[in-house]
Automatic annotation (TrEMBL):
Record's protein name: Interferon-inducible GTPase 5-like
GO molecular function, one term: zinc ion binding
One Pfam family per UniProt: zf-C3HC4_4
Limits of the B30.2/SPRY domain: 281-477
Domain RING-type positions: 17-58
Record keywords: Coiled coil, Metal-binding, Zinc, Zinc-finger
InterPro entries registered for this protein in UniProt: B30.2/SPRY (IPR001870), B30.2/SPRY_sf (IPR043136), Butyrophylin_SPRY (IPR003879), ConA-like_dom_sf (IPR013320), PRY (IPR006574), SPRY_dom (IPR003877), TRIM/RBCC (IPR050143), Znf_RING (IPR001841)
Biological classification of the source: Eukaryota, Metazoa, Chordata, Craniata, Vertebrata
Coiled coil location: 210-237
């Protein structure tokens, strides 16, 4: 009976992996139809700087997708059992060299036996003798080196950029540490000076009152002594027999008693009450209100500009509340008025300094707040982004809080804020947003303002009454 090896010779070659030239292990097929070992194709695609593609036809595989060939794996297992030496670990499906009887084995790739040198003998095999393979790869070496040099240059550039970012980050952190220390140092210095001032006032008031009380005490002691003397003298005149003389002395004594103050201690009690009221009142609140004098920030009284309001918006009489009234009013369509987006600007422009204001949003499911350039488009649909002059955050659907940056950033606070604080540092190019209840930071834009800016308010659409609550500009103490 003929050996099955010659009959399986061509078939076994079809069962070999084009990469390792060994039996296919866990065969997978690419979209182009070529088959490889799963481990071989993953190793090939993992090579640095090499885009994923089919090693044979070079068809790109950007999504690195392949499909396992379970039936082929089963057939290979059966074929290896029939092939002589097929069950031997690492044996190549081509069997042995017919000239030298050396087995062909894969060891991370094909290699010829020690005795095999003639190229013509192995024209139909999928590997080359070492000397020819070496020459072939030497031709590829310059391009590979150039590619490696290009990759290295790119990596060095990325490394330099990352080092620069790290240095800038560290410098920014140190600068912010100095800023925090300076700002809190100002507060501590102001509080210490304020405490010393209050202590001095208390000491001066206490000393003045003590002196007054001591003078009053001396006066009371003198009056007590005079009264005692008058009483003794009156008692001495009681035994006198001369009635006229006795009546004269008694009249003089009564006149002296009438001249004495009725409540000599009243003013002292009142002074003590005034001292308690002045120095034991809401001292912390008083100091907090006075502290605004040292804050390097303006707390402006922001109001709304009706000339910019969309015709559907309803503003309160004091121009601190705005809502979508759902009905479009016949207002003049001026260049300053928004005609598509239900928005309105603040009445005053800011071109310098640091400003902070707060807006009550409550449980509204939709709103937009921030600052905008004076020249922003107010007609038609608006694309809110810093490149268009908008530095805003918005809420949609009662759940999605987003900063309209480039790209937009979804914000995930622990709880949706009911009151938004907006901080503008014009010279510093900063617009920050806070949950005003606890001053938790929400987001910060970095910007270079090319012109004056206005506060921006959009209460959101009426939504069949589901978003009818107004935005409210909150007064700050």
């Amino acid at each position: 009976m003929a050996s099955p090896a010659p009959q399986l010779g061509s078939l076994s070659e079809e069962f070999s992996c084009p990469v390792c030239l060994d039996w296919l292990q866990d065969p997978v097929t690419l979209p182009c139809g070529h088959v490889y070992c799963q481990g071989c194709i993953e190793t090939t695609w993992g090579t640095l700087g090499v885009p994923p593609a089919c090693p044979e036809c070079r068809e790109p595989c950007p999504d690195r997708r392949y499909a396992p060939c379970r039936l082929l794996r089963k057939l290979i297992g059966q074929a290896r059992g029939l092939s002589p030496g097929g069950a031997e670990e690492g044996a190549h499906p081509g069997g042995r060299c017919q000239e030298h009887s050396e087995p062909w084995r894969g060891a991370g790739g094909a290699f010829a036996g020690e005795l095999c040198r003639a190229t013509a003998t192995y024209e139909n095999l999928r590997f080359l003798p070492i000397h020819q393979a070496t020459g072939q790869h030497q031709e590829e070496l310059p391009s590979a080196i150039a590619q490696l040099e290009s990759s290295l240059a790119g990596l060095l550039k990325l490394k330099t950029e990352e080092e620069e970012r790290i240095w800038n980050h560290q410098a920014t952190v140190l600068s912010l540490e100095d800023h925090i220390s300076t700002e809190f140092g100002k507060l501590r210095g102001w509080l210490a000076a304020r405490e010393e001032e209050w202590q001095g006032r208390l000491r001066r008031a206490g000393t003045a009152q003590l002196r007054a009380m001591q003078r009053n005490l001396q006066e009371l002691a003198g009056r007590c002594q005079a009264a005692q003397e008058m009483l003794t003298e009156a008692q001495a005149h009681l035994p006198q027999q001369n009635t006229v003389e006795f009546l004269t002395d008694i009249k003089s004594f009564l006149d002296w008693v009438k001249q004495q103050p009725a409540t000599p201690c009243g003013p002292n009690t009142g002074s003590l009450s005034q001292t308690l009221g002045q120095f034991k009142g809401p001292i912390q609140y008083t100091a907090w209100k006075d502290m605004k004098s040292i804050l390097n920030i303006d707390l402006p009284r922001v109001t709304l500009d009706p000339a910019t309001a969309h015709p559907c918006l309803v503003l309160s009489e004091d121009r601190t509340r705005v809502r979508d009234g759902h009905l479009r009013r016949p207002l003049p369509d001026t260049p300053a008025r928004f005609d598509f987006c239900v928005a309105v600007l603040g009445a005053g422009a800011f071109a310098s300094g640091r400003r902070y204001w707060e807006v009550e949003v409550g449980e509204k499911p939709a709103w937009t707040l921030g600052v905008v350039h004076a020249s922003v488009s107010r007609k038609g649909k608006i694309q809110a982004s810093p490149s268009k002059g908008f530095w805003v955050i918005r809420l949609r659907g009662g759940a999605e809080l987003m900063a309209k940056d480039t790209p937009p950033m979804v914000l995930r606070p622990q709880a949706l804020p009911h009151r938004i604080g907006v901080y503008l540092d014009y010279e510093g190019g900063q617009v920050s947003f806070y949950d005003a209840r606890g001053m938790a930071h929400l987001y910060t834009f970095s910007a270079r303002f090319a012109e004056c800016v206005y506060p921006y308010f959009c209460p959101g659409l009426y939504d069949s009454g589901g978003n009818a609550t107004p935005l409210k500009i909150c007064p700050l103490p």
